[in-house]
């Protein structure tokens, strides 16, 4: 069977001209003309400030923008009067900028694959992926992602952010504790919009036969992070800055987020079971930069709706949940759902058990996998409701302590997952 | 008279013997064909089951929810079912061949007619089967989507979809085997069309505020009313 | 030669820079002299150069390698007599080689009689020939050039009990060019040498002639006025002679020294030189293109002088801090190699004795716009000795053969003005003229060839330049055009083989003819012209429409 052609001829031609690089920064885009110019300038500035002597390239992988995004990338140039010595002399080396359209529709998986392919062909030593939509991106973000790789030989750098205490709850309550307990290394931001990786890891990931899998198309970063861990690459985290809050209604909704992220996570559990079933003791990941912090400014949340969706979800999806969960777990969830709003608490212990049973049922495909993950959503809402109620007055420190306790609970129940997994 | 009776009896006896003499070998051949056919069908069943096992049909069926349906109906797994079906089809084919050797044309004709109908029956069963699968899958998908979206009465949506698809599948199955084609098609059209019309009227007139709200929610932002607050961002 | 006036001869010159002290010692006193230099004129003629630029050979205490002049109109006894100089000059002219000498106009040695008089008393008529002050607070905005050795531009004179101004070493007091007497005296010096027959002057340190309060003391309008006057007199009384400016400035600032064709004929393009070295190390054409794009147009009668190395340190004054750090880290890891704001190494050691890189850089030197200067010894790949003081490591004796003192002198080795380079890689046993003359493919043979090829056309010396910008940034490609002739130059700056597609649409229909071998290459058509180059390889193609 003929191998699928991945890269467009024009893209290959551009890569030929670039040759070999030390540093590569990839920007996946789709209709980001309004913001990508700023991102490009920040990247170029980070090159000049942090990597003036290195061979650098910026690669834009675009999903078929129709608002001129690619043209903005090619045409954005720094103001010469601000350049070194004020004589119009910029960096030591030619600024390499490569733009390609990988398809007619945006796909996170294809975008990442394109950037990995560029990194592999250009033999880049250190790479980073930057979101074109981050409006508070600074040059420090980019250098903080690249330096652990370029100078300290790490292979994967996940970001750490200052966040609002109610942001990123999927990561805090599900992705982080689950991946930490199962894979042994805790990555706080398992589905980040900025990340760093080495050329070695890029080549390794590119060579895996996974890029046609639907399960990872929307959240390939999760797969990449867990692959880095399970393939013994050196991983770390680096503090970048404050993660901007998405404007209400602009980010992905809960259902989509759960489907994409949990689907990807569960798929990784399935395909990388050889690693995590055998793994040794958990290890903390090295972190660069200051500790991340939580901000606690007030937020207007509709807790009542979350509670109602949880209750009605448990009721209406009863038969489906019964085919996924153990009877005891189901019974306990139903008892929690039957409680009043004030008393309803979805404990960490129950949550861990629920997730592990879901993971095992996903593995055994007791029913359609995507349906299974959708069935998790009301339970996730229940957990979030409980979390919001418990932490409405918590400080950042208290929330972090609670997260740590949750992780410990997951780790305590890990043998239960293994047992159900192998059943 | 006595002689005539004796002659008649003797003639009849001779005929009987003659018929038996002709029939028995044919019967023996038929038996051999049937036994051979049984063996061939058995081998094919095992081979087919092995092929289906390699193709992981059972797993796909689990995911599609078909296995559950079969278990509820106390039926074996799909690969077992299909391999048994193959067994019977092959063996029945050999049986027909065997019966044809007997040389009884009327019997042969009836059996042929039944066999002509078999493919249609098989297809109708397939249509029903996939219809049930589809109704299960889609009704469950609808249930999940409407539960997670917070719609009222998600089970109504789910059940409606299941009902519609089952009716469609059933009608198609009956049409396939040619039973009361016109009646079935007309009945289906009337029921289906009436149901849709009723829904449209109920939704558009009786629930026009709900309709407007639902459309606004679908095509507009996902904000809830500002004073009730937002859902925290998961990512 | 004097009758043979070709007004723009300097544009077609290929200049060979040397110090008479380093070249050949005829009287075995360990120091090169003019008689010895005369004996080597055949070698220079064979090499193909047509102009010699002599470093200062005047009487001097030699505390700055002769740039501290004690007598402008004589020859230092170490190097011979004025008669011997005349003989050498005439012999050079007979071989079609012009001679350019130094005019150190900005300062003298403190041993010069002028300064001795000036310092003797405040009433002395020559007092005002130098710049004096009671305090060292004047001209505070002026930078110090020799930062490794000097702490101030003012020095205290214990004899006259006042400060005198010096932009270079403290034993080199600056002349006061505001004084017409100084102008007249220096013009007298020039006339002296012009009357003997020299063909031009390299004016040393000319940006610093005039100083004014509140300025940086460089490139002032008054300085240009002086230089214009010198030029006017020169053109009037000695047509066909050349003035070459040593102004280590950004190209835009050097432009002023050409005036409207009424100041200098030529000026060094200092900022280009380090960028050529940088480009080869970076394997990126950007530094070269960037600086040449910033280089302004100059009058038609004027010409840039370009070079790779010279007697001074490879100056890094006209580069950015990032570039300077890069050059230090790449070319002068050992701090012993650094002096002032530069690198005191020769071409071959900087290229790690890589013949390909030496040829590439020389090829660029010979094909870029400007008059090329070859520093003595670079044609055979001589090495350096960074452990000699000051910049003496690049001023060691010429290596003629593998014998006694490298054939430079018959004196005892201990008597030589400087030890000969003797290490196994660059020593005279390995690197010398005699052994390279015997091999057809030596660096010396190659240098002769490239000089010959360059000299075979005036496209390089007179033509314009148009940069091509192929997408492969490791290839520097340009077209030189003069009248209706074109030469395509393609340089691979990289250590690996490269493919490059050139947009030569404007030259469609032309046949590229490789200039060293004379072989035809495929005709230029509609499509991009594909070339493949070996590491550090370059091509020169004459484009012929035929």
Q: What does it look like?
A:
The complex is a heterotrimer of chains A (423), B (235) and C (546). In chain A, helix 4 crosses helix 7 (199-206), helix 6 runs parallel beside helix 9 (254-271) and helix 9 packs across helix 15. In chain A, 51% of the residues lie in helices and 12% in strands. The longest helix of chain A is centred in the C-terminal third of the chain and has 22 residues, at 369-390. Chain A has helices at residues 9-18, 33-50, 69-75, 108-121, 139-150, 169-183, 199-206, 220-230, 254-271, 273-276, 303-316, 318-324, 327-338, 348-364, 369-390, 396-412, 414-422; strands at residues 23-29, 56-62, 96-101, 126-129, 156-164, 195-198, 235-242, 286-288, 294-295. Chain A has two domains: 9-293, Spore Coat Polysaccharide Biosynthesis Protein SpsA, Chain A (Alpha-Beta Complex); 303-422, no CATH class. Chain A has 423 residues and is an alpha/beta fold. Chain B has eight helices and no strands. Chain B is elongated and about 110 Å long. Chain C has 546 residues and is α/β, with parallel strands linked by helices. Chain C has helices at residues 20-23, 34-39, 41-47, 82-94, 113-120, 180-196, 221-237, 251-254, 272-282, 286-293, 321-331, 347-350, 355-367, 433-438, 443-455, 459-462; strands at residues 15-18, 51-54, 98-104, 132-133, 154-157, 162-165, 200-204, 242-245, 266-268, 303-307, 314-315, 338-339, 342-343, 371-375, 464-468, 475-482, 485-492, 498-502, 511-514, 529-533, 538-544. An eight-stranded parallel beta barrel of chain C has the order 1-2-3-7-8-9-10-14. Chain C has a five-stranded antiparallel beta sheet with strand order 15-16-17-21-19. In chain C, strand 5 (154-157) and strand 6 form a beta hairpin. Chains in contact: A-B, A-C. The interface between A and B is large, with 47 and 30 residues.
Estimate nothing, just give the exact number of structural domains of chain B.
2
The structural class of chain B is mainly alpha
The major β-sheet of chain C equals: 8 strands, parallel, barrel
**Order of SSEs of chain B:** HHHHHHHH
Helical residues, percent of chain B: over 70%
CATH level-1 class of the largest domain in chain B: Mainly Alpha
Mean pLDDT of chain C: 94
CATH topology of the largest domain in chain C: TIM Barrel
Helices and strands of chain C: which structural class? alpha/beta
Poorly predicted regions of chain B are 221-227
Count of strand segments of chain B: 0
What fraction strand of chain C?
15-25%
Percent of residues in helices of chain C: 25-40%
